[in-house]
Design goal:
This protein has helices at 5-19, 64-77; strands at 25-28, 38-40, 50-59, 82-90, 98-107. It is an alpha+beta fold.
């Protein structure tokens, strides 16, 4: 059986397009880029005074650990000193997908 290269290419491109549709999102203030971002798993673990500068969501693609590096990178880009990982949420509906939520924070001192 001869494989049609064009059909194979179309299938591969389609799969790549759909896999890249889920993006990390951010809503909040944009500050100068930071190089390091601290990670917290609960608000009570943050021992410094801080303010929340925004909210990040990242798709898990079936693996909640896959979202963590995306959240860290987005935190750096928006100028956060740290992120507080808040847990997983779901989009809902028949084809529900999971995502991780986080608060981007800036230390006050």
């Amino acid at each position: 059986m001869k494989i049609n290269r064009t059909a194979t290419l179309i299938v591969v491109v389609t799969i790549l397009m759909f896999s890249s549709c889920a993006t990390t999102t951010y809503i909040g203030d944009i500050l100068p880029v930071t190089k390091n971002v601290d990670i917290y798993y609960a608000e009570k673990d943050v021992k410094k005074e801080y303010k929340v500068i925004g909210h990040i969501t990242a798709p898990t693609n079936g693996d909640e650990n896959a979202a963590k590096p995306r959240i860290i990178e987005r935190g750096k880009k928006v100028g956060a000193d740290a992120v507080i990982l808040l847990g997983r949420g779901f989009t809902g509906g028949k084809d529900s997908e999971s995502f991780e939520k986080a608060d981007a924070i800036k230390y006050l001192k």
